[in-house]
Amino acid sequence: MAENPSENDHTTEATDALPVAQARAKPPLNEPFLLALASGKGGTGQTMIAANLGVYLAQSGKRVLLVDAKRWGRNLHTFLGIPCPVLTVEALREGEAKQLDEIFVPTPYEKLKLLSGIQETPISAGEAVRPPFLDELKRYPFDYILLDLGSVNSFGMLDHLIWSDRSLLVSVPEPTAVESTYELLRSLYYRLFKTVERAEETGAIVEKAMMNAKDLGIRTPRELVSAIRFFEPDAGDRMAKRIEKFHMHLILNQARSNAEGEIGQGMISVCQRYFGIRISVLGIIDHDSAVPASIRQRKPLHLVQKDAKATKQIEQIAHKLQSQDFKDKREETER
What we know:
By secondary structure, the protein is of the alpha/beta class. It is built from 16 helices and eight strands. It starts with about 30 loop residues before the first strand and ends in a 7-residue tail after the last helix.
């Protein structure tokens, strides 16, 4: 697709309407707000976005913890201009530290700290289980915790995504990235589905629907839920409502034109039709030469080029993260 600068302006993209949030229990007012960032593959710019959002929130006066929760290739420290942390979460298991705050790493930015690593517990292939690591993180006095999960490829990582206060999915408008995003959403859906199935005790109904899939014309996960409604209307309605409460937000990075920016809306439309999961575009970040320049200098975007388009777009996303509409419209019921 040819690049046309005159068609490449997503700074004021109409993405302000943020639907009601995911089906998490509403946390206490003084509890940190936990955001999980994930992608279907590497190379989407997810860590760059996490680092810049963390710095911006901290410089807005918020107490922020950035967690480099990737299994491999942890490099959040590089984006912050600091050395690789000597101690990671693994230090707790090895007896080098007794609690997490002993391994929080100061950064050049006041109110911003870094934690490297993640605690994963043995996980079954069945329902999603709330990771104890999230509760441990929330014990500390932060306003925001940003969890950089990288490309999610395990049940444990999916659970961190499901049980965070908000889930942010990062992708780029390229065929391989879009395909990987769909694969991640498929895995996420089935993990969520198994959790709801067990909570509603509908295993027998699901099995019956699957045995009659051909006759019932079941081709998509959404149609499976409709078939469950056919056999047990009340149980099917409950399952559908619980799945619909789950809500993700998409950040589309490296868009070179308005046409590429519109790919995000296409992804949302397909996912809603196929899975029935609600996704909304949180922001679009244009392809911008300021981004590689900031990475080379190991500095956040606004310190390298404060008027760059990508800088302004990340600032807009940070403003949305702080809005009451984004933070407070949460369902009161547990999944």
